[in-house]
């Protein structure tokens, strides 16, 4: 079994210009812990996790709008991790599990030619290894 067999699709992604507030809203409304950040062509640029948002410093400005002094919003691109884990679609599930465990991440994007095609979570991996089908 491979990453493509257990990944969740369609995948929601953010652009670097998305505000951290928009990112948090998308994560909480869809139950994601990590979101891929992609360019206009769908190429993976980085990853944004819940922890990245929570660690982002509160800049001086209006906390209700997220706009910093000078008019610049706090964006996904300003706090994303550029070198997070991503796995190829044809990678074996056991190797996906090892990489996720080694990187200490709960989810990872699945890429094909640099484009995000799905997401794999620890639950997806556990279900696959236990032979449990998704409901």
Written account of the structure:
With 135 residues, the chain is α+β, with helices and mostly antiparallel strands. It has a single domain, classed as CBS-domain, CATH 3.10.580. 33% of the residues lie in helices and 22% in strands. The strands form three sheets. The protein has a three-stranded mixed β-sheet. Strand 6 and strand 7 form a beta hairpin. Helix 5 runs antiparallel to helix 6. It is globular. The model has no long low-confidence stretch (mean pLDDT 86).
Overall pLDDT = 86
Major beta sheet, strand line-up = 5-6-7
Helix content: 25-40%
Rg (CA only): 16 Å
Q: Oligomer, anyone?
A: single chain
Overall outline: globular
The counted number of beta strands is 7
CATH architecture descriptor: Roll
Corresponding CATH superfamily? CBS-domain
Top CATH class: Alpha Beta
Spell out the helices and strands N to C.
HHEEHEEHEHEEH
Structural class: alpha+beta
Number of helices: 6
Report the CATH topology name. CBS-domain
């Amino acid at each position: 079994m491979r990453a493509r067999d257990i990944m969740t699709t369609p995948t929601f992604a953010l652009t670097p210009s998305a505000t951290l507030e928009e990112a948090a809203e998308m994560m909480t409304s869809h139950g994601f812990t990590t979101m891929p950040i992609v360019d206009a062509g769908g190429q993976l640029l980085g990853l944004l996790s819940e922890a990245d948002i929570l660690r982002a410093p509160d800049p001086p400005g209006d906390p209700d709008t997220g706009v910093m002094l000078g008019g610049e919003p706090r964006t996904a691109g300003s706090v994303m991790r550029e070198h997070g884990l991503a796995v190829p679609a044809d990678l074996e599930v056991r190797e996906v599990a090892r990489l996720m465990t080694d990187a200490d991440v709960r989810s990872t994007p699945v890429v094909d030619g640099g484009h995000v095609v799905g997401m794999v979570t620890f639950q997806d991996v556990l279900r696959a290894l236990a032979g449990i089908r998704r409901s």
